[in-house]
Design goal:
alpha+beta; elongated; 8-stranded mixed β-sheet; single chain; 6-stranded mixed β-sheet; 28 helices
Amino acid sequence: MSQSTTTTTTTTTAAAAAPREATLDAGNFCKRIKVLYDSWNSDSNLWKSANSLVLALGQPNESNPYQKVTSLQTWLFGYELKDTIIVFLEKEIYILSTPKKIGLFQKLSETEQVKTETILKFNFLTIDKSDKNKSNFEKLIAEATKGGSNIGVIIKETYIGDLALQWEAALNECSLSKVDITPALSSCLLVKDLQEQKNIITSAKITSKVLKSHILPKIETIIDKGERQTHNQLADYAADIFESPEKISSKLTVEHVDYSYVPIIQSGGVYDLRASASSDDNPLHFGTIIVSCGARYKNYCSNIARTYIIDPTTDQKKNYGILLNVQNSVIKAIKPDVTFSSLYEKAIQTIKESSKPELVDHFPKNAGYGIGIEFQESLAVLNATNSRTLKAGMTLNIACGFQKISNPEGKDEKSKIYSLLISDTVLLNDEGKVEVLTDVGKKASDVVYMLGGDDDDEDDNDPSIKLELPDDVKGITGRTRETKEKSKSVEERRRDHQKMLEQKNLQEAENKIKAMSDPNGKKGTPEVDYTAITKLQPIYNSVGSYPQDIVKNKMYIDLKKETVLFPIFGYMVPFHISTIKNISKSEEYIRVNFNTPTSYTQEQIDAGFVPPQLMYIREVTYKVNDPKVLANNIRLIKELKKKFTTRETEDREKRNLITQEKLILLRGKFPRLPEVHARPTLQGARRTIGILEAHENGIRFNPTSTKDRTPIDVLYKNIKHAIYQQADQESMAVIHFHLHDALMIGKKKTKDVQFYIEISEMSQSLDVSSRFNDEEEEERRERALKEKINNDFKTFIKRVEEIVPEQGFEFDVPYRELGFYGVPNVSTVFIQPSVHCLLSILEPPFFVLTLDDVEIACFERAIRSLKNFDLSFVFKDYNRPPIRISVIPRNYFETVKEWLDSFNIKFYQSERNYNWKRIMDTIKSDVKKFHDEGGWSFLDLEEEEEEEDSGDEDYESNSDESESSDYISSMSSGSDDDDEDSSEGENWEDLEEKAERDDKKKTFEDSNKRKRDEKSGSGGGGGGGGGGNSGSSSNKPSSSKSASSSSSKSKSSSSSSSKGSSSSSKHSSSSSKGSSSSSKGSSSSSKRK
């Protein structure tokens, strides 16, 4: 935050008096005196045609630590020199001071560097109190008059002390004309040399450390304990840290460290973003808190400001996001030779292009200023009128804010008005690149805190806020609830929150149903993209174009035309390989099944891709006496079909690819990570190693280890989730991108691209001698290597986030402590949640589930006697098939429930696996009816079941629930087929009676097993088999398999009869619309049905 140097007081630093053994730095003096004289000689207008220049200091002004004269003295000589008058002439310098300081100047003038690099002659005068320095003043004025009549002074400087007042009087009485050189002197301070840059960088580190490690934890402790402290008390606490620099770092000393201004704390509706702001005696309010502080290291300043928001409204979050984007856009626009006014215009433009352009009225009149020895450099203010240009070496304090925004939804009167402020110290380095020097988190997840109070705003339960709290203040979360709901257990609070989420889902469902209807109230039907359906071109123009070597009544495979010619009624009828569904053999018979209209979707049939007037052959069966010929024909047809299917799949994937924009490459230095691996690998390579680079609009991976050097480009706008997993307990550090639109890498179409470094591989590449070291040394090496790689990745990620222009682009970091083992694909992996997704990215196939896409979660096989359970996720888009994670160890059950609840995901519990394919088909057939009948409430039966049985008793039903029970039974069939085998089984009452009898005879474990067996075998009990889940099938008795087999046979028979035809060996059958053929649609010597 911009601070005033007139309303704060600070102790003078080590420059107040030169130490006894002090020396003046000749190198710095030569560089900086050259800057001053070059400017003076080249721009007479800026220097007001001054013929001589004067820096006069008596006693320093304690109320203004940033006097212009002291700033210039410190810049030139490294010290604040009181009782000193310096007159600069064209080729001479006259210095009037005390004997001790004259000694310092004499040593400086005698150095070889000053003699060779400057042409200035030093003249020294010692203070003479006997005549009040009258003769000294006459000498100085006489020498100045020789150069010309104009003497440059700092007009607004207040003279303090006898020497300064006497000089002012003598200057007023002489004939010299005073001209103001304040702006000219300020211009000399704008561009910092390397030593100045190092001092400011150190100063920024100190500032960041004080805020991050002292002020912020103090505020968090106050909030957590509900203490009462005033803004001034907090400011005094922060000031004491600067005055005791050993608390910041043991390497810092009081001589070098001070505060730039007394830290400022503001809250409670009273905010001031102007340069004259200061803390007051009002108590800290737990709403919007603005914290500003700045360090001063070796007289060089830095500054930072952050706004911390507690229980924000949706509007506050949105406004903060816009402000953060404004500051980022300004920082990104900082380049050499752009004007200060253009940076301010960039800020205004960003606000106007945001979702709330009216915030322009709340933006201050400037967006920051230059900073260095002077806290606020007047010539480097970012406002609408400053036409000066930026130069490499400048340092700026970029301060963006919104002031006095009304907040009608505020929880109390002090929250009705709030302001926002973000400020950082940045450096435009000698390469023309911007470096942000202050390093304290400012993303929404870093500055927003949730006390867990009662708030109707559902967005306040954002998991990204809750989970980003530091470990030492996790007590803040839920503090309010504990005081208000002490009588409630953790489970009861979770149940209440789940009910709230259920209501939220119902509201979203209503909105979804409205969106599915057009303005006339008719249901909208999704458009079908038929462009991907390929119509076959004619294979042969006539019978004469058939291959010459075909033999009548013998099957022939034409590999060139990708066609099989079958003998039918004495004619050779060609069938393209795409028309063949599958082929099989039984002893000496070949059976060929064709794709028929029943294989097409109804949309394709309605669209005319299946002409209704033709006959289509469903299958043909041939007898082949020669077993070698039979095997060869089957092999050739299968190979041909595989080749065709592979090619068609690749073509279809390429057609569906979204064309990416061209990558805009950065010049000069840009973020890069060498020697990283990429997955998927490029074609023909076991491993792909290369260099990962960050550019203006995307990431580029340049392979170095493969023949194929085609780069992999990933645009920032195509990245849905950017994930970073550091090498902690894992053996690799990973950057993973989950994309919106798939990329083609080699011949693989993928939405997941990964770049990683393996620790074990690098450890093995160390010097061979390290193999003979002891185990402790090897562990130390590995720890050091992990730390280095993690730091390299973090630096790369931080720089990428600074480059990316889009607001909100940040890398997700998984929460390992919330992770669990499960099987999302084919093998058991460790799955971890992050702020935005659930993921497992250490080994392919990768698993990345976007949590915002999830509508509900359902625990399946949630039985206490089982060692594991399954977890299914149903998406808001009902066209997406649900995802199941199976075989999750039982000890993770409460952990998973807790993080699902914290992520605002409604979950249900069941003792069985559901057939989600059938459930979703039923829902999609009439979404409105589904939600009108209670939506997912039918799953609540399982929750009630668990409550009533307390783990040891069976479920007890009542008549009111019979309808819901039947609905669940129909939904939870173990088969994925659409047709049912509706065999009747025992009802719930019968099962209860049996269970009670069995409980008296056998142990609890045997009883539980019998009940599960009976439920699986009962038609009324619903789906015992699960939707193909390995975890569930292992717990089912053999009887369910036989039932499933019976069901399958019955379905097959029913399906066949419904088509009006059946098939047997030695027969070819045709459906009512039959299979296409250019010949007469007849069949060969085999019988036709």
